[in-house]
From TrEMBL:
InterPro entries: Cu-oxidase-like_N, Cu-oxidase_2nd, Cu-oxidase_C, Cu-oxidase_fam, Cupredoxin. CDD domains: CuRO_1_tcLCC2_insect_like, CuRO_2_tcLCC_insect_like, CuRO_3_tcLLC2_insect_like. It comes from Cryptotermes secundus. The chain crosses the membrane at residues 12-34. Belongs to the multicopper oxidase family. Residues 103-216, 234-378, 511-620 form the Plastocyanin-like domain. This is Uncharacterized protein. GO terms for biological process: iron ion transport. Keywords: Membrane, Transmembrane, Transmembrane helix. GO terms for cellular component: plasma membrane. GO terms for molecular function: copper ion binding; oxidoreductase activity.
Length: 664
């Protein structure tokens, strides 16, 4: 049986009174020993205040069954970016009164009031749901006073539209406050994706949302494994802090994550009072006997790997980073920042309510969040019930045992490693080559820099070439620990590299002269020709850190040919030598295709891509424990200027305003 890729619901306005009445009724029944109730899946959306979200979409018809042969649509979205308070007046008496929580028009987050940055007032931002091949048009209006921003469409390769990739000063000018920018591109890459501001603090403060590109059942090789692919079955998981990082510079240095949220909501555990506030748990509704596709997104901008498990249910993984994989059964998922997994949950257990739990790691250590998987006809789950509490504790104990440390073998089980089986016949000849046309070895590590003093930054008498170190180096007394790629700190140019290359000062590019300095901050660009098979070996040297790192390449899906931890600090030269002796094994048969890769601590990962998408593509560490220091990133410049599509007409320009200085 082919999958029903989408299940149409009734008109929202007609459904709303019925569902509200139903939930009120359910609340009444709750006091009478919680008899069985029946909730339609669409109730989940309404209970999350999704009505307003839908009203803002001018192309609601874009979330539709995606069928072969149907004409692509132009799907219009309007995004207004603005600061909002969580738990504002629209929340009424929520948290506290569950009925008002259902009817509220506000973002709860974890129930603690703070300023967030929002897309259309929502957390997460308005969902973009389209069919493969649709044209997506997003008009962004920024009311982020005093801030500039840009939106990146994580998972879209922007083939033919590199100017829409949303990296400020690389692919476009930043969107200034009170201005508008139109993103327009074809949603060529089906799958589970998300969008986010490319400024880490804006992303952490709430500017992110799901981006779902469905495809026809005929084009999804795993479509016969599920019956439903519902809008409501998207899980976007994100860390949440009680301070707005954008406005609180001190918190940027030492980010404290307060909660992990599922779809922008969740309870908060107060470590001082050792109490947890009551935020109604998200409910994912299913019907016994059916199989449901769930789309799970780790939208973390911070260093937060997320472990997910559903009580009493196995998870069948069918896709990762938007790419279908050979179905694999797993007890749990582990998603690193930026990763997406599509899973099938079969509602084949006793009709009841089951916990769905996420546990954070690294920067989100000791944080967890729960939701319910509720069968149609089940007793409404009551989280304070003793039986429910004990099953929650049992699930948590199992998960912590499985993954007491990220380096545990059980944490990322064997079957998950091997899940990404790609049919060999689908690999191009280039991808099956034993040796790539070009190899790059990219080391990265955390380096300690002593505090800089005034003489390092004394440029009073230098008019043109100042030793202008960034302020975070000399605004402190203690040494600073900086994650760097190849001992370089990435510096953004004053004009977009892609759309205004002529405006980028050549002196900004990384040079030997810069590398010889005490600290080198420069525009790190690596050039590759068009249409070559390129291996990139990322080496996590591990002299200054014991952490794995997650890297994401824009513009490409790549094959993850292999990765390994050596368990001791390593140097890139050692890895290069081993590779020259053929000691680094490459899986050229069934390697997974991804856009986000984990490089293990004190180890390496080998990725392979065929450079057929010209552009200036950011290769970035997805996770950071601090906003200070620019982060680890570099540009892969594929092809020459002549290979690029023309810059769109009326594309905004920006740059230095600087007249020559005359010294007499
Ligand atoms: Cu991306």
């Amino acid at each position: 049986m082919g999958a029903r890729c989408w299940k149409p619901g009734g008109p929202l306005l007609l459904v709303l009174p019925n569902v509200t009445a139903l939930l009120l009724l359910a609340g009444t029944f709750l006091m009478l020993n919680w008899p069985a109730i029946s909730i339609r899946p669409s109730a989940v959306k309404l209970s999350r205040g999704g009505v307003r979200m839908e009203q803002l979409e001018k192309s609601t018809s874009c979330s539709r069954p995606c069928l072969d042969g149907r004409k692509a649509k132009e799907c219009y979205f309007k995004f207004v970016l603005e600061p909002r308070l969580t738990v504002n007046r629209g929340c009424s008496k929520c948290p506290g009164n569950d009925t008002e929580c259902v009817e509220r028009h506000c973002s709860l987050a974890d129930g603690v009031q703070r300023v967030m940055l929002s897309v259309n007032g929502e957390l997460p931002g308005t969902a973009v749901r389209v069919c493969e091949g649709d044209i997506v048009v997003v008009d962004v209006t920024s009311h982020l006073r005093g801030l500039e921003t840009a939106l990146h469409w994580h998972g879209q390769l922007q083939r033919g539209s590199p100017y829409m990739d949303g990296v400020p000063m690389i692919t476009q000018c930043p969107i200034q406050s009170e201005t508008r920018f139109r993103y327009k591109f074809r949603a060529s890459n089906a799958g589970t994706h998300f969008y986010h501001s490319h400024y880490v603090s804006h992303h952490a403060d709430g500017i992110f949302g799901p981006f779902i590109v469905r495809q026809s059942p005929q084009r999804d090789p795993n479509s016969d494994l599920y019956d439903y692919d519902l809008d409501e079955h998207v899980l976007i998981v994100s860390p949440w802090s009680h301070k707005a990082l954008t406005y609180d510079l001190e918190s940027q240095e030492d980010i404290e994550v307060s909660s992990v949220l599922i779809n922008g909501e969740g309870s908060h555990f107060n470590p001082e009072s050792r109490t947890r506030n009551h935020i109604p748990k998200t409910r994912f509704l299913v019907k016994w006997g059916d199989r449901y596709r769930f789309r799970v997104i780790n939208a973390a901008s911070l260093d937060c790997p997320i472990q997910l498990q559903v009580e009493g249910h196995e998870l069948t993984i069918i896709a990762t980073d938007g790419v279908p994989v050979k179905p694999t059964t797993a007890s749990h998922l582990l998603l690193f920042p930026g990763e997406r997994y599509d899973i099938v949950i079969s509602a084949n257990q006793a009709i009841s309510s089951y916990w769905l739990m996420v546990i954070g790691h690294d920067q989100c250590k000791n944080l967890h969040q729960e939701a319910f998987l509720v069968y149609d006809g089940a007793i409404l789950p009551h989280e304070f019930n003793e039986a429910t509490k004990s099953s929650l504790n049992a699930l948590m104990a199992t998960m912590m045992k499985t993954c007491s440390s990220l380096s545990d073998a059980t944490c990322r089980p064997q079957e998950m490693k091997e899940l990404h089986k790609t049919d060999v016949q689908h690999l191009s000849a280039e991808q099956q080559k034993p040796h790539a046309d070009m190899k790059l070895y990219i080391p990265f590590d955390v380096y300690v820099y002593d505090a800089f003093d005034d003489k390092d930054v004394n440029f009073r008498f230098m008019l043109e070439e100042s030793i202008n170190y960034p302020s975070y180096l000399y605004n402190r007394k203690a040494p600073i620990r900086l994650p760097q790629v190849d001992r370089l700190t990435f510096k953004y140019p004053p004009s977009p590299l892609l759309s205004q290359p002529e405006s980028v000062p050549k002196g900004m590019l990384c040079s030997d002269d810069c590398r010889r300095r005490k600290f080198c901050e420069c525009l790190h660009v690596i050039h590759t020709p068009l249409n070559v098979t390129l291996d990139i070996v990322l080496v996590n040297e591990g002299h200054g850190s014991n952490h794995s790192s997650t890297f994401h390449l824009h513009g490409y899906n790549f094959l993850v040919l292999g990765s390994e931890s050596l368990g001791r600090p390593i140097d890139v030269a050692e890895i290069q030598l081993s590779d020259s002796h053929g000691l680094l094994s490459r899986n050229l048969v069934d390697a997974p295709r991804k856009d986000t890769v984990v490089v293990p601590s004190k180890g390496y990962a080998i990725i392979r891509l065929f450079t057929d998408n010209p552009g200036s593509w950011l290769f970035e560490a997805r996770s950071t424990s601090s906003v200070i220091g620019g982060g680890m990133q570099f540009i892969v410049q594929v092809g020459e200027q002549t290979h690029l599509p023309p810059v769109p007409s009326d594309f905004p320009r920006c740059g230095d305003h600087k007249k020559p200085i005359f010294v007499f």
